[in-house]
Amino acid sequence: MCGIWALFGLSTHTSIHSNSSFTKIHHRGPDAWRIEFDNRVKNSCIGFHRLSIVDCLYGMQPMKLHQYPYLSLLCNGEIYNCHRLREQFDFKYETNCDVECILHLFAAGGVENIVKNLDGVFAFILIDAKEGRVHCGRDPYGVRPLFRLYSEIGVLGVCSEAKADLWHTIKKKPVSCDIGRSDFQGEQSNHTYLLHTAALLTPD
Known about the structure:
Blueprint: E1 3-8, H1 12-15, H2 18-23, E2 32-37, E3 44-50, E4 71-79, H3 82-89, H4 100-109, H5 111-117, E5 120-128, E6 133-138, E7 147-150, E8 156-159, H6 167-170, E9 175-176, E10 181-187, E11 193-200
Antiparallel strand pairs: 1-3, 1-8, 2-3, 4-5, 5-6, 6-10, 7-8, 7-9, 10-11
Protein name: Glutamine-dependent asparagine synthetase
Pathway: Amino-acid biosynthesis; L-asparagine biosynthesis; L-asparagine from L-aspartate (L-Gln route): step 1/1
GO molecular function: asparagine synthase (glutamine-hydrolyzing) activity; ATP binding
C-alpha cells in the first residue's frame, strides 16, 4: 500500500496546513516520501508516501515520463497486466514500475482507455498540465481507497485516507470516490477547480 495526496486551488490560508496534512498518511508508505508544488498547474501541491514493491530505484512518484512531460501520476495500486500492455500497444517503458502503463494508456486514448485496459487494483490522481485537468479514478472493485473533497471556494483535495486532507480547514467532509468511476476537474482562469461530469467506467 502507498499513500497518495493532492491539493489544488490552494490559497495562503490552506497551504500553511499542507505539510501537517501530508504527514498524517506516513504509515501508508514508510520507505520514502515526496511532496512538491507543481508550477505547471497553478496553486497545487502533490505528495506521495511509498511502500517499495516494484522498481525500487525508478518507481518514485509523482511519476513523470520524458515522453509525456505534461503528465504527472500518483497511484496506489498493483497492475497485473503491465507487461502484456507493453507488448500489445508497443509502449516504450522508461521504468520497471507497473503503474507506468497508466500514463501510456492515458496519452494514447484518455482516461476511458485506462480502465478499459487495466487488470488490477488501483486508485489514481492523474494531472494533465496541457489541458489543465485533474483526473481521479478507482478500479471497479474498490480495493484501494480514495477520498475527494471539493469546496465552495474552489479547493480540490484528493487523498488515500479521509483523515489526511484539509477537511478541518475547509469545513467540508470528504466523500469516497465511487468505485469504477473517474471524475475530472478542470482548472478555471482564477486557478480554482470546477467539478465536471463523472463517467462510469467498467471493465470489458
